[in-house]
Amino acid sequence: MAPIERITLFKIPDEAGRDRVLEQYKILAKTAVKDGKPYIVSAAAGASFPDPRNKGYNLSVKTTFASLEDMQYYDTQCEAHKALKAVAAPVREEVLTTYFENIL
């Protein structure tokens, strides 16, 4: 199976809120484990460049997982992801997530 690429976009109106979420992503990248081992293949996050095409989404994240099963674990069981959601929930206005199997 090809890697699963996950794109998550946030609308976070407050710069301090964006900074808190980005800091939590840094923690997540170091602490997310499955069966005691790191399982996120790669992660990238940053403030989106201002552009009318982003429709107000101002924080962009890309995570890569080895399998759909790993991504589903991330969504339902990963303690590091639960901590991230707890930080993001009170500061975000909207979140958009999509994922796909990388064919390249």
Automatic annotation (TrEMBL):
Organism per entry: Aspergillus homomorphus (strain CBS 101889)
Pfam family, one: Dabb
Protein name: Stress-response A/B barrel domain-containing protein
Cross-referenced SUPFAM superfamilies: Dimeric alpha+beta barrel (SSF54909)
Annotated ranges, domain Stress-response A/B barrel: 4-100
PROSITE patterns: S_R_A_B_BARREL
